[in-house]
Amino acid sequence: MLVWEIILVAMGAIRANVLRSVLTTLGIVIGVAAVITMVALGEGAQRRVQEQISRMGTTVLTIRPGQHFSFGVSRGDARLSLEDAEALKSEAGDFLKVSPEIQSRMQIAYLRWNANLSVLGVWPDYFEMYDHKLVAGRFFHQGEVNGRRRVAVLGFNVPDQLGELPPEQLVGETIQIRGIPFEVVGVLAEKGDAAWFRPDDQVFIPQSTAQYRVMGGRDRLNAIYVATATTGELDQAYAVIDGVMRRQHRIRPGEDADFNIRNSADLLATFQETQRTFTLLLAGIAGVSLIVGGIGIMNIMLVSVTERTREIGVRKALGATRRAILLQFLVEALTLCVLGGLLGVAVGYGAAEAVKRLAEWDTVVAGQAVLVALAFSAAIGLFFGIWPARRAAVLDPIDALRYE
To answer: How does pLDDT run across 115-126, given as a tens digit for each residue?
Structure first.
């Protein structure tokens, strides 16, 4: 038999039992759809995390206080001071941007409106290292930090919380921070929020003003942010920061540091690896449905061989070779799986879009996942179709013709 004739015969056998063929491929459809949907959810979550961490600044190193140890015993949280930030700025100012942060939640009032928001005292470099943009006004400058001026830059959402005003209307107006009047000099463009990083709902004031006029002379910093121009300078910056901070805190080489340095780029890599593992786990679970569907196809193909025993005997009597019979049943199994795979891709894509629209989750249907799912479904067809096809090919034509 010619190859094309074999394919036509296989297609005819599938069309002769349309309902059974559809039910047979249902397991493959569900399996492929589950794989596509799970991978789309995983890819969407990974992209969202990547965007969130990128908004934090991938060239930013965050220094936070750790545990202070004495003779191997923890003496409580260590302290970061303004002197630490000034030392970093003076000794590594050629390639580093530095900003201390002193933070507290406070009541913000404007006319009859008020809101409880996070107030951050920072240096002007903070806005540059996190690539903040403005929709109105300006940033405060270093002269206003040195002069302890009462000026404020508002996050994008703050005007809505203070009377649902347009940003331009608040610039130049006076707001009350803990009862102290501040002039609004700028409003930031929308940045978007991460679970741990919400600049759109924050108020930024000069660090010196926050320390001496708002927070009662508190000299303990929440963090110090240090940024490089490129990610290639992060290792050098890490070494410089570690050396300066150890000298500032009088920590000898080899002793445990009482501060932590966190790299946003490392955090991004960790999240990506975690999300990739989680996505593979979900895809693996969904892949079990493909195997179950393959077993169903093998079962139906064995039933088909039994039902068509006399047909096989006639074809062999007319000269059909074992190879032709084997190929015919393999084509049937492969066609069922590939058609199921194509339907599964369509269903999976539709499910991913439905989740995106109804649940408002980010989903990304990757072309690589589609190709892998189709290839795997075809492999399932070949693997589980071999045994029924071989059983049909080795039938003795005389026994087959006598079969009732």
So the answer is: 999 999 999 999
